[in-house]
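May I ask for whichever protein you like with its backbone structure tokens?
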Amino acid sequence: MRTSPVRAILLATAIQLVRFGLIIGALEIAPDLGIHGWYQGLFANAVCAAFAIGVVTWLKLWRHSGLFVLWKSGKAPLLLLPFVIEALVWLAYPGGFASQAPGIGLWALTLLLVGVNEELTSRVAVLQTLRTAFSSTWAVVIAGVMFGLQHLSLLATGSPSTEDLLTILVLTSVYGFSLGAFQVRFAWVLPLILVHAASDFTQILTTEPVPFAMHIVITLTLLAYGTWLLKGHKETPTGAPLIPPR
């Protein structure tokens, strides 16, 4: 079902704003529920994951998501390799990782929840919404930018410098673009959740600061890779309704 660009962007923006509001709200009420410190982030990620599941259900997009597809034949598994390499490269350079409080298990859990909520929100709900009004290429570009902008939530959880924040917005926009290109081509979000969580895990728990130049090289590589993935995509209508019929 086609819709107007304005309507699609408004709905996609609303989804992201509600998610942002839930982060703020979860962090605000967590202490009243006896949740403090690091665990506030875990709580906020759990709330966002529940929201993502709810919005994908509301938009009836599960069949477009590929969440329950354990394996795909053909090129899809092979073309996941650049994302797997990106997630693992942080272990090799600048030099391995080490456990941080409250432990590797809880970090793995919260970052898996990050993968679930961000991929279902950005690569399924937002991207599919935009595809009802835009070509796949434009939908991926816009969704990628929105994915980057959603990291403004860092202002609610910390005090990054302006330079650091702008850098994060650019890097995450490109990362979102490349993941979106894969999703448009293969409609297989399950492995994207896993590589996203793994990438966050290895970067956060790295023992040494990641050199800025390394971020730039990887980001430019992912930008080129996402562009190549889109060139190999044959444009087809999604058939997904923007707003589910009552």
Q: What stands out?
A: Residues 239-246 have pLDDT under 50 and may be disordered. DSSP finds eleven helices and no strands in the chain. The chain has one domain: 5-231. The longest helix spans residues 104-131.
